[in-house]
Amino acid sequence: MKILVINCGSSSLKFQLIDSDSEAVICKGLCERIGIDGSQIVYTPEGKDKITKVSPMPDHNRAIELVIEALTNSENGVVKLSEIGAVGHRIVHGGEKFTKSVVINEEVMKAIEDVSDLAPLHNPANLIGIRACQKAMPGVPMVAVFDTAFHQTMPEEAYLYGLPYSYYEKYGIRRYGFHGTSHSYVSKRAAKILGKDASDLNIIVCHLGNGASVSAVKGGKCIDTSMGLTPLEGLIMGTRTGDIDPSVVEFIMKKENSSVADVTNLLNKKSGVFGLSNGLSSDFRDLEDGYVKGDAGAKRAVDAFAYRVLKYIGSYSAALGSVDAICFTAGVGENSSFVRKLICDRLSFIGGKLDEEANDVHGKERIISASDSKVTLMVVPTNEELAIARDTAALV
Ligand code: AMP
Asked: 197-379, which class in CATH?
């Protein structure tokens, strides 16, 4: 079956058309600047060169029309519209309601809307994407795949904050975790690579991209993860702070005479390795380059990033009791042998030992631990779109 995977943001829309039988990507692309001047669709049909079309996209309905046009046009299209068997939508927040992917109906859409206050930037955009697809492809079944679902197996001791319990009861304030599709895919893939059943393994997944999170997966189920109520908690990220003392917010507001919105923007958009490097870059390629050339800001940022990952590996090792494998994934985790080395060189407390030669790998599956390492260290590229396509095919 041919499955269209949609990842809809407020002003962008990423898509992939995947053959769920062969798992081949038939076409993938991106609509940028939806609702803003200068919008364009960029896409690559399988085996062909990248195509860019500048075209006004006042809303997501038009963006979806252009995606369908790109996929089906007579010149370089790859399918007939009737061949698209289902659409899988990435949904950021499923609250406590969704513990797995579901076929979308009116009730599901209402439930996604109900948890929108937990992800005010993302869930409304995801819903707009669903409605636009329903309009363009009436009758085609659609599936919602939630970023939070994999983490719903966390026990209460891991997901509760030390707040009055009534705040959890009244408002649902708790750890939800994100990147769940990636943590799920990578932990299952790692078990397959190791030739074992996921239920027999304790795995720590380090999803290190522009957004970054760690999860502890015991016997195939998530027992803890570093992101929280929102994707701001946990690791130091590209531009996000990760864990800080909550009192910092009021402290900055008083010192800078700024608003909650200003500080929230600062914590999300101007902090992380970008902020720590004094604005040098949020991109690890630039930071690594600066690090080796002796730039103090780049060194400070990358060292703090790696140390925070190490701390989470330490605490999740304790939570899991023992660790069989540590997986590195996403942009930095898959590509940066430099960052992996900074982290893995400090894993002697669990008997983890890096094979430096094996670690020279970028974007490919590989075991990177030494033969006498007590923990298997591995690079496992994530594939959230494929995971969404698999769930979608299974459900429809
Ligand atoms: P993601 O959010 O998973 O797409 O990851 C994006 C980030 O991965 C970029 O901002 C870069 O910091 C990082 N990245 C991508 N390629 C490399 C590379 N070859 N070396 C180091 N970092 C990389």
From this structure: alpha beta
